[in-house]
Predict the structure.
Amino acid sequence: MKTNFYNKYVIWLVFSIFLILGFLFGLLLPLIKPEINSVMLLVLTIALFLLQSLFILKFISGGFENRKKIGVSLQHFFNLFFSVVIGFSISLMESTSKYNFALVMMPLLIVLSYIITDKYKYDKTVKDVSYEQELEEGTKSNKPVIEFENKKYIFSINSLVILAVGTPILAYLIYFFFDTEPQYWLHEIVVKQTIYLLNLFFDMGVSASYSPTGIHHWSFDFIGNAAGDPLGSISFETFCTGVQAICVFAGIIICTPHSQDKETNKDIIWRKTKSLLISSLIFYVVNIIRMLIQIGLYYLGYPWDSIHVSISAASSFVAAIIILLLHKWMPEFIISIIYIGTLLNKKFKLLKEPKKVKNN
């Protein structure tokens, strides 16, 4: 199926409009009264999902097998669904920075919509550079070629430098962004989700208190512990959101080099996007579970300092699982490290050779 440049961007524009409308419908849904207006808006929201599905079937998935049709439909469905959830959540939030939730997340959803569109609408008639050409170029430049699962990996020196230097810098900048007061909407989301689950499963009677002044805007408040004794509040900070782990892996995924082999490289953006989304979701869910366990033990009478450090350290093992997932979807990360070792080994051998010649 052939798609030109113009059609791809027009389709992306349509999906972007769907996302914006979904956000606005979600934002207005709990605000409009009387109830009949809310019902009408709910109907319009459902109609928006149906309209997007029809648009996908007519303009996107023609000629695809059923599995791909379902895949592209689900990906755009969840993207639109999350835009509605963002709007709906903002109308229920208390933070003074709650609208920054949309300012941060909506552009990301729009970019994700483009990546999904590009994945299914690239021009298959464009001829990729063959492996023989890439191998010849790699040989001429004296670069090593690593083969893994019938794919060829050749990296430039600049891309490897970006991986080594750019990863920690980018991870720090992303964390610094979320650690600023305008992004404390993330604190409210994590705190309220944790409290909801604590009261749902353990009936602790935990509540959240919000104060838009000072260092800590949100805290967990307790009626008492399991024995009925008074229990001190727990202040919430950015580190408690678990976003630092997401930032580290975001830096790794974004800065991981692309192979110079076009066949290997053709779907790297989608694979990076999938790795980032799934790793972020895993870290977020694990962090919520960590909060539930810590606060549950604190409620039972365990000292906060002990359980906070030990459980936080134990949850770090999740990083090993993420590394395995990265290797499955984005082997470039591990292979690029091996590639650096290969280049260094080759350099050391070249340095030793002149000494051997002199000794002879």
User: Anything to note?
Assistant: The longest helix spans residues 268-300. The longest strand covers residues 207-210.
